[in-house]
Amino acid sequence: IKPENLLVSKADGDMLVKLADFGDAMLVTSPCRGAHGECGTHEYRAPEVISGMEHGSAVDIWALGVLMFEMMNGYTPFSWQGRGVRDAHRNTLLQELVFPDDDEDED
């Protein structure tokens, strides 16, 4: 889940958000089986995916959290632009998450 996969439309005066691009989608038949291996866009990958651990639908909740953070702040929570994939993954695994100060917007 990332901004590029959200489609916004208007129907009967209501805004609708639709999820698109299920290129890495899979059917999860059991909550404990999950998937194994790399998938998804680096900025939105959950630690389980980065670490190569078995994972399930919780990684989608992680990606949604990253997306919501980006929508509220204008950037993803774990800075990695201009760096390689290894640095991006290291930041996601090790960097402390810092939320912007609410007082910054009140100037």
TrEMBL record:
This is Protein kinase domain-containing protein. It comes from the Eukaryota. It comes from Octactis speculum. The keyword Nucleotide-binding applies. InterPro entries: Aur-like (IPR030616), Kinase-like_dom_sf (IPR011009), Prot_kinase_dom (IPR000719). Pfam families: Pkinase. There is a cross-link at residue 2 (Glycyl lysine isopeptide (Lys-Gly) (interchain with G-Cter in SUMO2)). Residues 1-107 form the Protein kinase domain. One of its GO terms (molecular function) is protein serine/threonine kinase activity. Keywords: ATP-binding, Kinase, Nucleotide-binding, Serine/threonine-protein kinase, Transferase. The keyword ATP-binding applies. ATP binds at residues 4-5, 21.
